[in-house]
């Protein structure tokens, strides 16, 4: 039988590139794909809800969860902690649902080490200028935070070469279409089909 487990999909990319926007569109009407809700110590932005966009925790609460082994991965980003709760990921994969982690590059690297079969997608802006425009245009951070995020973006772009696929977010529509193809292709990777190959051979 073909691999019945869901696919672990990791999406990274510089802040403001449009990961959230593309994912929101992609996940519409897609019942067999879940989005992991991360925990963070950063303050909620206007409109962000606890348990929907993030689990907003104090530093103490966050580190306690890490100490209890409840995080699949975690990292510090711009002076805050961010992490992926383990239970929901396992639940989804065991139930045969794909699950998307929208996480930064250190976390992605940690996931790949623990789960080599994870599909890693890096979202790129069409240009640096466009990234600046999107991040500033969002108007959710003060200018210092924006500058820090752009500084971090330089380091993140250096990590893009380690990802399985690069997704250029030129238009949302096109990026969503590309993401669908990437995920389809991910399902056909040899490493995810090994058991199927063996089974066909055994039943020869
Ligand atoms: P991220 O989740 O990567 O930090 P967001 O999804 O919050 O980024 O997007 C940042 C800003 O860029 C938002 O204002 C969003 O509306 C805008 N945006 C996202 N994708 C596109 C696109 N393809 N073209 C133009 N603007 C975009
Ligand atoms: P933001 O503050 O803009 O929501 O997120 C900042 C960065 O943290 C983004 O690059 C986002 O992908 C990343 N991030 C969000 N959740 C997690 C997580 O659970 N783990 C890690 N390592 N990074 C995360």
Structure overview:
The chain has 204 residues and is an alpha/beta fold. It has 8 helices and 9 strands. The protein has helices at 19-27, 59-67, 86-94, 105-114, 128-138, 143-159, 172-187, 190-202; strands spanning 8-12, 33-35, 39-40, 55-56, 71-77, 80-85, 98-102, 119-124, 165-168. The chain has a 5-stranded parallel β-sheet, with helices on both faces. The chain has a 4-stranded mixed β-sheet with strand order 4-3-6-5. It is globular. The structure holds adenosine-5'-diphosphate and guanosine-5'-monophosphate. Adenosine-5'-diphosphate is lined by residues 13, 15-21, 134, 137-138, 169, 171-172.
What is the strand and helix layout of this fold?
Elements: E1 8-12, H1 19-27, E2 33-35, E3 39-40, E4 55-56, H2 59-67, E5 71-77, E6 80-85, H3 86-94, E7 98-102, H4 105-114, E8 119-124, H5 128-138, H6 143-159, E9 165-168, H7 172-187, H8 190-202
Parallel strand pairs: 1-7, 1-8, 2-7, 3-4, 8-9
Antiparallel strand pairs: 3-6, 5-6
Helix pairs in contact: 1-7
The structure holds adenosine-5'-diphosphate and guanosine-5'-monophosphate.
Adenosine-5'-diphosphate (ADP) is lined by residues 13, 15-21, 134, 137-138, 169, 171-172.
